[in-house]
């Protein structure tokens, strides 16, 4: 099983980034996919979830209206479009997978996870 995030980097406040997570080794279509992040010195924070389509997606209040999660089932890839970025969005962003809808700030709820990609938002 592999989940490989990409697209992170350094951006100024108000800017945008698009993260990607390419997956392999499991039945992508049967899994809920998630984006979570860990800010420096803080715990894990759930951000977004999606199942088979955008109609089955949800976002945390902290990113609602700014972040949009999507997935390409043909390519077994998920994306996170991040707009209007703020310095408090700085952190390591991870994609994760679970069989059930279980948005959580606990790694134990996810069956698979990637290694993460760093996002730094400067003020």
Number of helices: 0
Low-confidence stretches: none
Distance between the termini: 37 Å
How much β-strand is present in the residues?
over 45%
Which H/E pattern describes the elements?
EEEEEEEEEEE
The major β-sheet equals:
7 strands, mixed
- Which radius of gyration do the C-alpha atoms yield? 13 Å
Strand tally: 11
What is the topological layout?
Elements: E1 2-6, E2 9-12, E3 17-24, E4 32-38, E5 44-50, E6 57-59, E7 67-72, E8 77-82, E9 91-98, E10 112-113, E11 117-122
Parallel strand pairs: 2-11
Antiparallel strand pairs: 1-3, 3-8, 4-5, 4-9, 5-6, 7-8, 9-10, 9-11
What does it look like?
The protein has no helices and 11 strands. With 123 residues, the protein is an all-beta fold. Strand 5 and strand 6 (57-59) form a beta hairpin. It has strands spanning 2-6, 9-12, 17-24, 32-38, 44-50, 57-59, 67-72, 77-82, 91-98, 112-113, 117-122. The strands form 2 sheets. Strands 2, 4, 5, 6, 9, 10 and 11 form a 7-stranded mixed beta sheet that branches. Strands 1-3-8-7 form a 4-stranded antiparallel beta sheet, with no helix packed on it.
Q: What is the compact description of this entry?
A:
With 123 residues, the chain is an all-beta fold.
Features:
globular; four-stranded antiparallel beta sheet; seven-stranded mixed beta sheet; 50% strand; mainly beta
